[in-house]
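Practice problem 4.
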């Protein structure tokens, strides 16, 4: 995925925001997005920790700048 594209598969900011508001889709899209980027460990961390504070932080960051949290950017 190109670095200049928006999160959640390059969808528009409005569509990504709608997906981020719904907890189940935010969880699934967050995990899949990180795995597609080649960040397997980050995807697994999202899988384990994605239902709590990470969802709220993702929602706030999606509203502010259109990107999800990069917890582990290795």
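Answer key:
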């Amino acid at each position: 995925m190109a670095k200049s594209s928006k999160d959640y598969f390059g969808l528009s900011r409005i569509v990504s925001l709608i997906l981020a508001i719904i907890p189940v889709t935010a969880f699934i899209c967050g995990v899949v997005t990180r795995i597609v980027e080649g960040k397997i460990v980050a995807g697994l961390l999202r899988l384990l920790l994605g239902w709590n504070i990470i969802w709220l932080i993702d929602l706030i960051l999606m509203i502010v700048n259109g990107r999800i949290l990069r917890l582990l950017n290795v």
